[in-house]
């Protein structure tokens, strides 16, 4: 099984095109609301960043309020990805703390793929390639520099780890 990046990018682009205005940082809570998703804070306990529960077609994203703001944004985008891509496969998704979560030994291959797809979706939603490329060109950034990656991470309101991975996956460094 492999992640269908073209499909994910087309789904994300459709969502971004539906926004009244595309500006940075991407407002993931507004996107969730526009998709009919409720976003609520829950004490999810240690080690759980977020969850998506779907009941009778209505999705609720639970976020752990003790997480860093950039982590909360990523979690919301990740859960939007599960809702958009996987709502026909499960009615509950629970996501552990770890950005770009690696394969967990207890996960089935299908679950591993769904997690990878939700991560790709979240990255594309929070750091749209066209906006990221524009910011890099506009600022004439040297992406080998940690300072440049930190500056982009601040502008997109994501972690430096997420930005570094996104830049690498787009072949910008």
UniProtKB/TrEMBL annotation:
Residues 32-168 form the IrrE N-terminal-like domain. It comes from the Bacteria. InterPro entries: IrrE_HExxH, Rad_response_metalloprotease. PANTHER family: ANTITOXIN HIGA1, BLL0069 PROTEIN. This is ImmA/IrrE family metallo-endopeptidase. It comes from Mucilaginibacter defluvii.
């Amino acid at each position: 099984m492999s992640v269908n990046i073209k499909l994910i990018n087309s789904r994300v682009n459709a969502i971004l095109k539906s926004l009244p205005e595309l500006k940075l940082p991407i407002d993931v809570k507004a996107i969730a609301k526009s998709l009919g998703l409720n976003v609520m804070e829950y004490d999810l306990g240690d080690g759980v960043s977020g969850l998506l529960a779907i009941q009778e077609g209505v999705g609720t994203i639970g976020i752990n309020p003790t997480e860093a703001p950039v982590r909360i944004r990523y979690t919301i985008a990740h859960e939007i990805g599960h809702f958009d891509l996987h709502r026909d496969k499960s009615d509950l998704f629970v996501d552990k703390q770890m950005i770009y979560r690696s394969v967990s030994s207890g996960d089935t291959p299908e679950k591993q793929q769904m997690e990878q797809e939700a991560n790709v979706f979240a990255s594309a939603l929070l750091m749209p390639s066209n906006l990221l490329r524009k910011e890099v060109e506009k600022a004439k950034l040297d992406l080998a520099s940690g300072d440049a990656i930190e500056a982009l991470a601040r502008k997109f309101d994501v972690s430096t780890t997420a930005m570094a991975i996104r830049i690498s996956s787009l072949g910008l460094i």
